[in-house]
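Annex B. Sample input.
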Amino acid sequence: MLRAAVMGLAAMVVTTLGPMGTPAAASIVESKRPDCAIELSGEIAAGDARQLAAIAEAAGLTRPIESGEPNNSGDMALCLDSPGGSYQEGQAMARLMHQHGIATRILADAECYASCAFVFMAGRFLGGEMDGPRRILTVGGRLGFQAPILTISPQASFSGVDISVVATRNMQLVADLMGFAAYKSIFDYRPMYAMSLLEQLLRTGPDEMVLVNTVEDVGRWTIELAGHREQHRLDDLQLIQACTNFQEWSMDRPSRTVTDVEWLLPLPRSSLSIWGETMEFALVETGGMEVSNCQLQASAQPVDWFAICSRDDFNGVNFGACHDNAVHWVPWYYGLAPDTPLSDLR
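Annex B, continued. Sample output.
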């Protein structure tokens, strides 16, 4: 649970405490597991960010960028298993991940809460010609967000000036979080944190948490999912659902389960050449008087990812242009109802 303690009148420490007492330093070690370069487990405490930086440097994850490709691949991730800990240390770790383009991952048997979740969301791939989020949640892993909360001892007494100082410091903490969360790559149209996630986590109380449980949570908040079951070919109803989800999540809006779409079926098909490869695409109309639609790759084979483009003349926002070889790639579970539990994807 994220808490802030005012030490006298001069300093505040924002921290999460699991067991009562002073948090011990986390265990941070180079990893021999597949998909992990470094493993962090236990509560995050003062000094852990420096230790993580030293291990990341020794593992070659902080070397200068020398090409257009990402320096670090997704299988060279920081694997996290922590209930939280020091907010300041978590933020320092997050900035390290972001600065050097290091992916983050939560394995199927791991948890990542509070300040650990801030580290997770800083996962990134970074090269001279590409930049985007790379935070990977394995199905079965547990991820939860919580805001920094000021908790003051009932025995403490403060003047009006003291309260003003504390309130100002609290606002600065929130502003720092918002500034970091608002980062937007020139290669991506979405910020590091979706505004809906930032709004929800800032509303949490000391005994509350925003948990990532559904397909909508990972799709809307740009969290990559691993460890899911294989998917068969998407049928027409799933392609309509995928279009609806893509259009809503791309604008950080909640999606809905599509119903009463028989009038759209069967979806019209056409062939397009995408970078020299001929693909079959389906057209999903989502508008009325205005043009609003999706073109989606309609593969006859099972897919992990599929191509999609969206046009929406209601707001003048288009994503991709399939006829010009410019497509977005989304995972197959975009074709599922937004409230589908992640546990159903095992």
